[in-house]
Design a protein that fits this description.
Length: 184
Amino acid sequence: MEISTSSQNVLRVINIIAWVIFVGLCIEAGGILFNSIYAIFINPIASKSFWMKADLSALYNYDKGFFMVVVSLMSIVAVLKAIMFYLIITLFHHRTFQFTQPFNAILEKFISNLAYLSFGIGLFSIWGNRYCDWLNFNGVELPPMQSLRMAGGDVWLFMCAILFVIAYIVKRGVEIQTENDLTV
């Protein structure tokens, strides 16, 4: 039995998966922002069971300013991830982008934007990790980085480097395709 999938079907599945991830990341970013505002302005007890049951009460009790910095970094990382998947979704719905001729300025800009976003995610994740390590060193008990959603900053920077290389290759492909279109 042979299973055959066309590229159109694969792109539809990728589009659906991107939508699901985008909605999940929007929920995460909104949850972190809502919990931050709620804990800071309304009920400080909410820091005990922060987003995804992360216990930030020790940090809140230590210093409200440090708490605001950590939740700000968590929010920035979550929002940048959501923006990344928003860009992926908009590529699928872009009217002038054609998958039959992928080497164009739209794809070049898209990959460059993904590279910049992954750089931002990596930068803020590493900053958050270092900041939390410093707080741990000063005696503040924090949950693991995985529960704060700031782990893997080095992976995001690695992805940034790869995307910049791919963006350069696509840029060169656009130049070659433009030259070929002009000579024909």
